[in-house]
Amino acid sequence: MAEMIGWEHYRTLLAVLREGSLSGAARALGMTQPTVGRHVSLLEAAFGQKLFTRTQAGLQPTEAALSLQGYAQTMHDTAAALEREASGHGHHIQGVVRISASEIIGVEVLPEALVQLRQTYPLLKIELVPTNRLQDLLQREVDIALRMTPPRQQALVARRVGAIEIGLFARADYLARHGTPVTPEELSRHVLIGFDQDTPFLRAARTQFPFWRREVFALRSDSDLAQLAMVRAGAGIGVCQTALARRDSALVRVLPDIFAFPLETWVTMHGDLRGSRRCKVVFDALVAFLEAYAQGRDSHA
């Protein structure tokens, strides 16, 4: 019986897992709550076991439901990739391209590139996923990904766009109040902004800059955007991309000869998409835009 179940039932299961309730899943999917309930009941009957238990906190997934989540997510990603691929056929550059990038790149840098793309190719639709989590290109979670590490899978196509430099910055009025540190040791007298949880970036930076560790951060956040907002607000000293800092005349670089951390940056996509015209034009445009950004030829500079 399970093999007769349509994809829409697994999509409903995924929505209930994400939202934690039938009503939340119904809103997310644009369906009625009874329909969502019927889909869940059909799946439970097909698999012969409960998928959710009701608690005061809402629906709690059983082990059976959690074991299905990865498969349902794969089906969701494949269906989305099929829709994007089908939308791209025609005489014009059109259809959907899904891009992932780090929080900072996605929010602070890429919008200008997307404006240029849409001006040149008005039939393109762009889905932007700003996240520091690596999206799976092989499973087609996204079509194109901007990464700070070189891809290791042979199935991926990648172009290095250069090294985006990270430096320490503070707002000028913060430094006017507290002084400008001239040695790493003097940083201990300042309000430092950094990560809460240990990250690959933090571990890599610590090999060159042992003074940049969690214990010294007075303000901590695992969101790059939150850290940048605190630096811009004059809360203390934190990291910022040097190309991005050049756009803000209030930001002053701290210890420029000591703290300079290059992030090698790559634009990547699945090799199967090389024949996709819409993906190729987006890929090439992102490469050109980010090469200019990494080299300091950003139009905001």
What overall form do the CA principal axes indicate? globular
Query: What are the segments in which pLDDT stays under 50 over at least 5 consecutive residues?
Result: none
Percent in strands: 15-25%
Strand segment tally: 11
- Which whole number gives the mean pLDDT? 86
Overall SS class:
alpha/beta
Main β-sheet description: 7 strands, mixed
Tally of helical segments: 10
Proportion in helices: 40-55%
Task: Give the termini distance in whole angstroms.
Answer: 62 Å
Order of helices and strands: HHHEEHEHEEEHEHEHEHEEH
Query: Gyration radius, to the nearest Å?
Result: 23 Å
Give a written overview of the molecule:
By secondary structure, the protein is of the alpha/beta class. The protein contains ten helices and eleven strands. The protein has helices at 7-19, 22-29, 33-47, 63-87, 103-120, 172-178, 200-208, 224-232, 242-245, 277-294; strands at 52-55, 58-61, 95-101, 124-130, 144-147, 156-171, 193-194, 219-220, 238-241, 251-254, 260-270. Strand 1 (52-55) and strand 2 form a beta hairpin.
Would you spell out the secondary-structure blueprint of this structure?
Layout: H1 7-19, H2 22-29, H3 33-47, E1 52-55, E2 58-61, H4 63-87, E3 95-101, H5 103-120, E4 124-130, E5 144-147, E6 156-171, H6 172-178, E7 193-194, H7 200-208, E8 219-220, H8 224-232, E9 238-241, H9 242-245, E10 251-254, E11 260-270, H10 277-294
Parallel strand pairs: 3-4, 3-5, 7-8
Antiparallel strand pairs: 1-2, 5-11, 6-9, 6-10, 6-11
Helix pairs in contact: 1-2, 1-3, 1-4, 2-3, 5-10
